[in-house]
Design brief:
globular, 21 strands, Lipocalin, 287 residues, mainly beta
Length: 287
């Protein structure tokens, strides 16, 4: 490092932050420069949903709840709608129930408690429901819920129709990949960033992504008292300048986690989104 580097400003800044009441369980990009998320209070077993404007961090809607306080989640984002699912039974992974929200307001557009989402394509949502002989498939208009066609059990025909539809335009976030799988022109920078980690840090858990002039490395550092039986890590993002991989800064994400979490950040429309201490969404920008 050159002596003057210590006086250079950090290469990133916080554009905005948004805190939830419980924990940020999930973030999903949505069209129109929005990010939809789940806010879960694990102690109270209560879940709610929110939507943030990506440019400003302003909540477009938040704390949207339902009669079922916990057993529901985000199924998909399709065009300007958010599709939630319920569960057939608590503690069971099978989805049952479709709730369609307007992505701009969070209001419920329609709901079907007996069906589950099979496919979203074009102007349609395809749902299924169990029958004595298999599964009944129905096609609905995605915003109104009006049934367009009863497909019976012809899900193969539904897939064929969906293949003919043009792909939906929408946000495509860049997610980090395991550092061990990163290849190409930046391999030397990745190797240098891994080499800067403390020896005790599990390098197999590190994930990286290129972000403009920076390489972002998500690392886990064992805390005092860490053992395989009682794991304890500090989670942080480490920024390295490209193309050489010089260290440029560190951002602490979580002071104590029990296991590495994959894809803990995303890059969307040139911004980096991550979650600090499980309850605050941070949006970072280059300086």
């Amino acid at each position: 490092m050159r002596p003057l580097d210590v006086f250079r400003p950090p290469p990133i800044r916080t554009a905005w932050e948004y805190a939830v009441q419980g924990s940020v369980w999930r973030l999903v990009p949505a069209p129109g420069g929005r990010v939809v998320g789940e806010d879960r209070d694990t102690a109270a077993k209560a879940a709610s949903f929110f939507c943030i404007d990506l440019g400003t961090g302003r909540p477009l809607w938040e704390r949207v709840t339902f009669d079922e306080p916990w057993w529901l989640g985000i199924e998909a984002v399709h065009r300007e709608t958010v599709v939630l699912h319920r569960f057939a039974k608590p503690d069971m992974p099978e989805h049952k129930g479709v709730i369609v929200l307007d992505a701009g307001t969070g209001t419920v557009l329609w709901e079907d408690r007996e069906a589950h989402l099979l496919l979203a394509a074009g102007d349609s949502l395809f749902t299924g429901r169990p029958t004595l002989t298999g599964r009944a498939v129905r096609e609905h208009r995605y915003r109104s819920g009006e049934m367009v066609r009863d497909w019976g059990d012809e899900f193969s025909g539904v897939r064929d129709v969906a293949r003919t539809m043009p792909p939906e335009p929408g946000p495509e976030p860049l997610l980090p990949v395991p550092a061990s799988l990163f290849a190409g022109d930046l391999s030397a920078a990745v190797a240098r960033s891994l080499g800067a980690l403390p020896p005790e840090a599990p390098k197999e858990a590190a994930e990286v992504a290129a972000w403009g002039p920076l390489l972002v490395l998500h690392a886990y550092l064992p805390l005092a008292g860490h053992t395989p039986a009682t794991p304890a890590y500090r989670s942080e993002l480490r920024f390295h300048r490209l193309p050489r991989g010089e260290r440029a800064g560190v951002l602490a994400l979580d002071g104590r986690v029990q296991a590495p979490i994959p894809a803990a950040f995303m890059i969307l429309d040139g911004r980096l989104l991550c979650v600090r201490e499980r309850r605050t969404v941070l949006c970072l920008e280059h300086r």
